[in-house]
Specification:
The chain is built from no helices and 18 strands. Strands 1, 2, 5, 8 and 11 form a 5-stranded antiparallel beta sheet that branches. Strands 4-9-6-7 form a 4-stranded antiparallel beta sheet, with no helix packed on it. It has a 4-stranded antiparallel beta sheet with strand order 15-14-17-18, with no helix packed on it.
């Protein structure tokens, strides 16, 4: 699993606001199913398996009409319920759930009879809000990297010259490290930093990084006998593929 903070939007300072506020001097009822929400979609071949954030949720003066929640927009099932708090009482929460392709967060009307909004000059204002910040998604990636490439080696015994190795790797969220080893010692490696679990904001953090590695091995530097060349590719979720 890897983590992405505010991966659904990194342009607004990292605070997401959801507000339901009706027309002035009148009340109206919105139908069940009405929602103010954002959605996060996992990268291809991955799943959202958890969310952590800091939140506050402010109910209307006569109580909650809309549910402040995280939910699965494909099934409608609730993933997390946020209780109303006093502003600005930011409360951290963390929830794990059955992996899903998409997660929605915001306010939604679950009442079969609908949800009341609006205000009158002599009555309470029916408005509700929910705010999230420091939103962190836990993303499951079940697919390991795929390695391709070739080596210019000979089955004949040689004591001099070179062997050339040219390999590439692909992965749906990118390659964090690709390395070529001879007898367990690095002959070449591509490991440009592209992922930090504590600070990553990208849903595909290593896309475009570390996709190729080339090595030229001087045979004269090796001892007599058989030698083992290993290629390993690792993605940000910790999955690895090895070829020998």
């Amino acid at each position: 699993m890897f983590y992405a903070t505010n991966a659904c939007d990194v342009t607004n300072g990292g605070v997401f606001g959801f507000i339901v506020q009706g027309p002035v001097r009148e009340y109206s009822t919105l139908p069940q199913g009405t929602q103010v929400a954002l959605q996060f979609t996992a990268p291809d071949s991955t799943w959202v398996a958890g969310v952590a954030a800091t939140a506050y949720s402010q109910a209307g003066p006569v109580g909650r009409q809309f549910a402040a929640q995280l939910w699965n927009p494909d099934t409608g099932s609730t993933l997390a319920q946020l209780a109303a708090t006093a502003v600005p009482a930011w409360i951290p929460f963390e929830v794990a759930f059955t992996p899903s392709i998409r997660v929605a967060a915001g306010l939604r009307c679950l009442n079969p009879s609908g949800c009341l909004i609006g205000n009158l000059a002599v009555g309470p204002s029916m408005s509700e809000r929910m705010h999230l910040r420091e939103v962190r998604f836990g993303i499951e990636d079940p697919d390991p990297p795929v390695i391709s490439g070739s080596a210019t080696t000979s089955p004949e015994w040689r004591s001099s010259g070179t062997d050339n190795f040219d390999f590439a790797a692909t992965d749906n969220i990118g390659i964090q490290e690709l390395r070529i080893r001879v007898d367990g010692i690095d002959a070449a490696a591509s490991r440009i930093p592209c992922y930090d679990a504590a600070s990553n904001v990208e849903s595909r953090p290593c896309a475009g990084f570390n996709s190729t590695a080339k090595a030229v091995v001087q045979l004269a530097a090796l001892s007599n006998g058989r030698h083992v060349v290993t290629v390993e590719a690792r993605d940000p979720g910790g999955l690895a593929t090895t070829r020998t």
